[in-house]
Design goal:
The protein is of the alpha+beta class. It has a single domain (about 15-120), classed as 50s Ribosomal Protein L17, Chain: A (Alpha-Beta Complex). The chain has four helices and three strands. A three-stranded antiparallel sheet has the order 1-3-2. Helix 1 crosses helix 2 (about 40-60) and helix 2 runs antiparallel to helix 3. The chain is globular. The chain starts with 13 loop residues before the first helix and ends with a strand. The relative contact order is 0.18.
Length: about 120
Amino acid sequence: MRHRVAGSRLGRSSGHRKALRRSMITELFRHERIKTTRAKASAIRGAAEKLITLSKRGNAAGDAKLIHARRLAAGRLNDPEIVKKLFDEIAPRYAERPGGYTRMLKLGQRSGDAAEMVLLELVEE
């Protein structure tokens, strides 16, 4: 039974799963859209939205909270340039939006293994 078990395993070990999530979220913020399977997209969607909310909170607060928010985001992303982009470009774009920063568009099935493919992208304002 899966009572109170959060998240999906995605058929990987815990270290591989953590690395996959970090790299996919980093690439989502770099390109602002990624093509992936529905399972992977739904696994990273919540974490990506929480990082955008964190960056919004950091921009609105004082210096100490801004530094703390940037360090938290840097711990969850692979690239310092993407952390800068998140705080300087992406967060101001969603300053007035209360949530729902990502969108999943279904693309159909992949021809090799019939996995359901989606386009995960940041919503434009």
